[in-house]
């Protein structure tokens, strides 16, 4: 015989709906999500609407001001700037997303292992992390990028090799708190090992922290791409990204070619701000105290 549920229980939204409701109340987070969707559509669908040749140079069309067939003008090599902004954004977003997610994944597992096992394992793993954090990230990136020839996969690995340190320390703190919970003790009594504890209990219960941190890691990774490209350590031409476009345009600012600077600079500011706003909204959404309201 089925027992009818109280009306209050039926009216109570689930955790997912409560989380979404809290996120939706954050107007900046919603704005960031819309801006990010618009930028993704611009970079990945835009070239289908506005196809341009971003491989062969055309010096007869070099340094044209916005107008006519070139809404944002052309570069010093004759590339249509609107088309290059799309293709460059695709590179920046692909590398930033992949590097940020890879860094978050590795840092999460590393920090969860260190925090759960504790003792000398935690001490050794965290001293390695502290030693790496003591060296400026940009310095490490420049050194490694100068040694190897940058390409998309190489650039992803270079940035991820530096960016995993922060999530590792963050998740280690979560693991230290979670390992003393009753369900972890019950799992141990039933014969569960460390691997089960880390991947079935520690990481899933820290997923809110992981997701929030991932958004900030992606934003930082996109900035790292821009830093390296601005210093001339980007993917070789004819490929482009927003950082390399910004670096190339700096040369022509004194002669009034503003269109070489503002579009890529604005794109970097927009995408990084969007990820930061989304991260702030997710942090509020996963906050247990707010989800109780």
Write a brief caption for the model.
With 293 residues, the chain is mainly alpha-helical. It is 71% helix and 0% strand.
**Ends apart, CA distance between termini:** 34 Å
- Low-pLDDT regions: 5-11
Mind describing the biggest β-sheet?
A: none
- Strand coverage percent: under 5%
Element order, helices and strands?
HHHHHHHHHHHHHHH
H/I helix tally = 15
Gyration radius (Cα, Å) is 23 Å
Q: What is the overall shape?
A: elongated
Average pLDDT confidence is 84
Percentage of residues assigned to helices? over 70%
Total E-strand runs: 0
Summing up helix and strand content along with how strands pair, one would put the structural category as mainly alpha
Q: What does it look like?
A:
With about 290 residues, the protein is mostly helical. The chain is about 70% helix and about 0% strand. The chain is built from 15 helices and no strands. It has helices at about 5-10, 15-25, 25-45, 45-50, 80-115, 120-135, 135-145, 150-165, 165-180, 180-190, 195-205, 205-230, 240-250, 260-285, 290. The longest helix is centred in the middle third of the chain and has 37 residues, at about 80-115. The radius of gyration is 23 Å and the shape is elongated. Mean pLDDT is about 85; it is low at about 5-10.
